[in-house]
Amino acid sequence: MQQPTITAFACSPDRGRGLARDMAVRWALEEVGQPYAVRLVSFEEMKQPAHRSRNPFGQIPTYEQGDLALFESGAIVLHLAQTHGGLLPEDGDARMRAVMWMFAALSTVEPVIVQRSEVLLFERERPWYETRLASIEERIAARLAELATRLGTEEWLDGYFSAGDLMMVQVLRRLGGSDLLAANETVLGYVARGEARPAFQRAFAAQRAVFVDAAS
Cα–Cα distance between 37 and 51 in angstroms, integer? Predict the structure, then answer.
């Protein structure tokens, strides 16, 4: 079978920290043992018709294999989990719970984390900056506390590593180095376990190599 091709930033704004959206897809590909090719695209190329035919919003990543073309990292990871072993359990109910946690990562946890990043980047000079940041961080801390309660003393969200954990850990990594994550030892340990997986390490090294090459 033809190996898939994904797209990624030719020069990632995450500066090699493994936070760009292709990271979750690379990680999933490594978890399921699927070799893949990467097409690097510049910001200018992302807005051209050729790339927009794959992703109408002009973003990365995209995924192509044969006649199938996908965009959105969550959809791509779900496709990989459904078509390869290792990221979804066999039991039907457990499979749906893993998918549920994927949605929770992207719909419940990530939005407020992205809001924090946007405030830090674009609103520092605004008069409402400190008040808005404090409000957002309070909401994030509440989400982390809820997640910690769910985890308890377990390693993963539903007893085994799944696509749900992959997406959740990748979302939480956006808080890396922050006091918010450091203050919650349960969630901090959860993220560390995800980052320690060999598949994550391979994916991280592959993505970082692109940044290093672009910077040299």
Answer: 16
Measured distance CA(174)–CA(144) in Å, rounded: 13
- pLDDT of residue 175 exceeding 80, the answer is yes
What CA–CA distance (Å, rounded) separates 115 from 26? Answer: 25
Among 85, 51, 86, CA closest to 71:
51
Indicate the pairing of strand 62-65 with strand 37-41.
unpaired
- CA 216, CA 213: separation in Å to the nearest integer? 5
Q: Considering the chain, what percentage of its residues have pLDDT values greater than 90?
A: 88
**Distance between CA atoms of 157 and 187, rounded to whole angstroms?**
11
Q: Look at residue 1 and tell me whether its pLDDT is greater than 80.
A: no
pTM here is 0.95
Closest CA to 103 of 80, 79, 74, 76: 74
> Are the CB atoms for 16 and 50 separated by under 8 Å?
no
Closest CA to 209 of 25, 65, 8: 8
79, 90, 99: which is closest to 36 by C-alpha? Answer: 79
